[in-house]
Amino acid sequence: MNIEQHIVTATIEAVKKLYHQDLPEAQISLQDTRSEFEGQITIVVFPVVRFSKKSPEVTASDLGEYLLEHVEDVVAFNVVKGFLNLSINNSYWVSLLNTELLKPEFGTIAANGKKVMVEYSSPNTNKPLHLGHVRNNLLGYSVSELLKANGSEVFKVNLVNDRGIHICKSMLAWQKWGNGETPLSSGLKGDHLVGKYYVIFDKEYKKEIETLKLQGQTEDEAKKNAPLIKQAQAMLLAWESGDAEVIDLWKTMNGWVYEGFDVTYKNLGVDFDKYYYESNTYLLGKDTVEEGLAKGVFFKKEDGSVWIDLTADGLDQKLVLRADGTSVYITQDLGTAQMKYDDFGMDESIYVVGNEQDYHFKVLFLILDKLGKSWSKGLYHLSYGMVDLPSGKMKSREGTVVDADDLIAEMVLTARQKTEALGKVDNFSEEEKEQLYYNIGMGALKYFLLKVEPKKRLLFDPAESIDFQGNTGPFIQYTHARIKSLLSKAEFKQGVQVDNYISLSETELEMIILLAKYPSEIAAAAKSFSPASLANYIYEVAKMFNKFYHEIPPIVKEEDEQLKQHRLNLSWVTANILKAGMRILGIAVPERM
RNA sequence: GCAUCCAUAGCUCAGCUGGAUAGAGCAACGGUUUUCUAAACCGUAGGUCAUAGGUUCGAAUCCUAUUGGGUGUACCA
What we know:
The protein is α/β, with parallel strands linked by helices. Among the domains are: 3-88, Arginyl tRNA synthetase N-terminal domain (Gyrase A, domain 2, 2-Layer Sandwich), CATH 3.30.1360; 164-259, no CATH class; 404-584, Isoleucyl-tRNA Synthetase, Domain 1. It has helices at 3-19, 46-52, 56-70, 90-101, 131-149, 165-177, 183-186, 190-214, 219-225, 227-240, 244-268, 278-281, 286-295, 329-344, 358-370, 404-422, 430-450, 473-489, 506-516, 518-527, 531-551, 561-584; strands spanning 29-32, 41-44, 74-80, 83-88, 115-119, 153-160, 274-277, 299-300, 306-309, 317-321, 348-354, 379-384, 387-389, 392-393, 458-459. The strands form four sheets. Strands 7-6-5-11-12 form a five-stranded parallel beta sheet, sandwiched between helices. The structure holds one RNA strand.
């Protein structure tokens, strides 16, 4: 039982004895004591006033007296307005460090038996990944790791949008203007090569539209009548009917894209347990539609189209099957949801998808709920904001997208330049240097994207490079490397406890309290699916260490063995937490830099 | 129109289920290296928490309205 729990039970006891009232536990609000006051734990007594029928100050004093008397480690208290500040025995904190934090398994949370699926990335196969995808990938990966750290069994899946008119556009353009170009022949990365033809299609299509408009057609007519779009549509039909030549080309070009994606995924450090392909799932969902009709959840209009009426839930009527019997987007998502559940039987299923699809998922989940799917309660749309540039939205057609591969390369290059300028890596081997530049560059990028609350839109300025100082990935990486260097210089011996009566500086006390929060920070971040809150915490830890490090004389030269061991213990715990926390964000921390 | 999200320092962001004088980083200014890595540390300056009401002992946080911005509202995905 930790000190907070002792205080809570004792407070309830106190209210019972002193005021003869039952204080509900929810009314007890504990917080860290602000640094300008004496003490470490504060009880906000305002809610208790209702039970004590006395002023906040008197109530606080009464409780303070009681806790001082009855809780062993409470050694003093002071009252400021309605706040009861408790001072906890020094030895309690030292023993917390000794017994809890120093355990090698500190921070690992036991399995909770929950199975969770996280679907993320979900790219289209007609163009390379851009910064928006990068946010999605990092978020999905990190949330998965976070849930694992919190004790769940996690399945990462990628639902690839590998079919449809968009990929036919690339295929058609390649047929017409590609002259047989392949990644091998041109040295172009596969996804970029296919993306190039997607752009060419768009350019040529626009030309045709202009020509048709000059011939007197309206914009809308021209868009429909342009030969290129007609050919693309014809190609899609051919694909659907299994035309061997089209399928062959489709396979070839998608293959190029996957080779390209694999490289980008590897650089991003993300992975998947299973891939789903829309070419396999796009026909799914018709059974679900039948089921919905049978259950009376859906209804059929005269033309044969199938709908659901969600107006009672504040939404609209929604089409779930076209009049010609073909699927729409939500049809396949209904079917895919069922398929995923049949495959994995998970308790929860997280969809990492941008907030432009908020409405879609609201509808999807509501429909599954109405169909009586027991597992629909576990569905969650992890909705994240767009990545904006100073000029506004990224638009592929206007060439303002920030390409993922370019960005990664730039980050690594910047890391190289900054590191070389500091001149600390002269004794590194070439491989070590390359690895370090990669880790630092990616650390900066990942931390930059992950420290922002997913829900919020994110501003990225390509003109200003991502910072390496302050609240950044490299700052935390540096702190870790510094501790590792310290531990080795001081010949740290792991697992040696120090005397409980050693005196703690204010910073050391704050450090222990902060470090002890790690497990609850993981739990809180997992609960809200927010790597950002974890990132924030890790930064606090790193900042606290640097403060500590500067305040005290060199540990290496410390002659008091107890004190030395104690400070090294604190440093060691800090390094572990930085490493474990950053790992959840998908960021490697170097041993030296 | 309707739905939904967002609005905190010059810029980028924190701020937990309402709690004490709203915090960081960057940028600006000043300081710290004969001592364990200066990608660090310390300090100064910077705020009508979009606006107006309301609930409360207490509101950046909850409610309502307004303003500004994003997104959605397809027999596209």
